[in-house]
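FYI - complex with nickel (II) ion, inputs then prediction.
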Amino acid sequence: MTLLHIVTVAEDNPVLRRKAPRVGRVDDSIRRLMDDMMETMVAAPGVGLAAPQVDVSLRVITLKVDNQLFHLANPEIIRAEGEQIAYEGCLSIPGMVGEVARAEKVVCKALNRHGKQVRIKGNGLLARAIQHEIDHLDGILFTDRLTDPSTLRRVDELGDEEGAKVEGEAVTV
Ligand code: NI
């Protein structure tokens, strides 16, 4: 496996703003991409990664939440319920966090590493990560979805009390 370069917003690479096309078939090249993304994401460290973040415009995401690994192609949210509000960060926007509202529970359909159709039910952090990564596939960043622009902060500029609160809550996806 190979560690891939993670594209950040500072690079001005349009891949982060493009709508990624669907995967036609989950073949060995897609499996290799999924494996390299998983390794890159875990090393970063982050709990979710989308293919455009490694400069590949395809609908592929990886997630690792509560020690469960997901390698998914063409993920689609087919049901969303409730609301959760928390600080979020992104491997493509290093050092920044902001408050984002997401659905509390989602059901997502996708193809797994073997090209089989699967349904994943997630709540809390898993639901948040799924929504954040699918946004990446549509060229949307968490900074487009802030509850309020004033919640976008540099992690290293937060005071002790607020820093501890945000660090406890924030998830890098
Ligand atoms: Ni992200």
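The CA atoms of residues 53 and 100 lie 20 Å apart. The two ends are 21 Å apart (CA to CA).
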